[in-house]
TrEMBL record:
<dbReference type="Pfam" id="PF13527">
    <property type="entry name" value="Acetyltransf_9"/>
</dbReference>
<protein>
    <recommendedName>
        <fullName>N-acetyltransferase domain-containing protein</fullName>
    </recommendedName>
</protein>
<feature type="domain" description="N-acetyltransferase">
    <location>
        <begin position="5"/>
        <end position="153"/>
    </location>
</feature>
<dbReference type="InterPro" id="IPR016181">
    <property type="entry name" value="Acyl_CoA_acyltransferase"/>
</dbReference>
<dbReference type="InterPro" id="IPR000182">
    <property type="entry name" value="GNAT_dom"/>
</dbReference>
Amino acid sequence: MSAEPRVLGFAEADVPAALAVQVADLEAEAWPGSTPGHDPALAPRTLLLLDDEGAVAAALALLYKGIPLAGRTYRAAGLSSVVTRSALRGQGFGGRLVAAARAELAADPAVDLALFSCDRPLAPFYEAAGFAPLPGTVLVGGTPGDPLATDAPGFDKAVMAAFFTETPAADRAAFTAVRVPLHPGSVDRLW
């Protein structure tokens, strides 16, 4: 009898080798020429959804960083490298994994918000998992000396968020229609 699909989480450095190879293969298929892995300074955590045979059906990375905005530093987490095995797309695996990521972040007392960008046509996918768009918000990634913003020419990005603070409406307002200094570095230029 086959097992039910399940979500597993690991610090990126602790992903078992056989699963790490599958994740690298999925990422190479989705983004040819990309380099697997994330900047260790962002404390990357890998979430995997395994299919009923124990193979990686979908994967994503959670990245963590403080973001100074509106007179305080928010403890932010971002979704990155969200990918589903091409043969399984459209079957709900990716949505289930993204919803699990949101639930994990909501339960983490060290996280104030989830914040990330996606291609605009994918915004409804993330909304279905509990994230909401931030109208007019621009994430400024890269570094202060070499920035990469979500409103750069040729980009069509939506900024998505979920707030887990005691004052989510006020914090959402602080992040709406502003340029957010994400600056995750030169490895994960935007998450």
